[in-house]
């Protein structure tokens, strides 16, 4: 977690934004940076090990890997991009889903207890440097430069006068806001969830160690809420990874679609 000791004397210092800015481990390397690299190692090792000796009747780990792959391939990429065009994008969508998922789940793993996506720079970098160029590139490649601009910003069927208002809005959404909002969704959920867990956990610790006698039992209530919120946070972490991959695939699908 951010700061494990928030009580100074008898005064409780509530957790806040400062707890997401961790001191460097060595040099300029911080814990979130290390966790990012670790997530790549975990995901790579998982798929390499589980696919090393494939069997017709899968083992538990092979079944788990195949389930994750099938979910990314069929439930996200195929549904959002379309059966005609989805295959080249399966590795990308699967990577986005598993990468965001592992970095989200860090938030409920003991000792680690820090969701990497709670630092806005990380999801923003993925959205701007990976998703954004991919879906615009495939759009320009399929429709041509002018054709794609028209495809993305001029929805058919609207009255001519409306296009003076609609086209700038569509351009702003497709070329500016989409990657930002994609990053904000997962960041905001991870930031808020981690902050809530900090409040209940460290608040319970403070009540137990520093509160007056009658208030000490309230610490148990605080910790009970922390446990309940941990399960809810786990669900949200998986959901946000799914939404991130789903929207990424949706943007690619819209860029490739013949109709607006």
Features:
7 helices; 260 residues; single chain; mainly alpha
Summary, kept brief:
The chain is mainly α. The protein is built from seven helices and two strands; from the N terminus they run E-E-H-H-H-H-H-H-H.
What's the domain count?
1
* Number of helices, where a helix is a run of at least 4 consecutive DSSP H or I residues: 7
Tell me what portion of residues adopts beta-strand conformation: under 5%
Mean pLDDT: 88
How many strands, what sense, and barrel or not for the largest sheet?
A: 2 strands, antiparallel
Distance between the termini: 45 Å
Number of strands: 2
Lateral strand order in the biggest sheet: 1-2
Radius of gyration: 22 Å
* Helical residues, percent: 55-70%
**Sequence stretches where pLDDT stays below 50 over 5 or more residues:** 1-9
Oligomer: single chain
Supply the helix-strand structural class: mainly alpha
* Shape verdict: globular
Order of helical and strand elements: EEHHHHHHH
Organism: Actinokineospora diospyrosa
Transmembrane segments: 33-50, 89-114, 120-140, 182-203, 223-247
Function: Key component of the proton channel; it plays a direct role in the translocation of protons across the membrane.
InterPro entries: ATP_synth_F0_asu, ATP_synth_F0_asu_bact/mt, F0_ATP_A_sf
Notes on the structure:
With 260 residues, the protein is mostly helical. The chain has one domain (7-256). 68% of the residues lie in helices and 2% in strands. A two-stranded antiparallel sheet has the order 1-2. Strand 1 and strand 2 (11-12) form a beta hairpin. It starts with 6 loop residues before the first strand and ends with a helix. The relative contact order is 0.14.
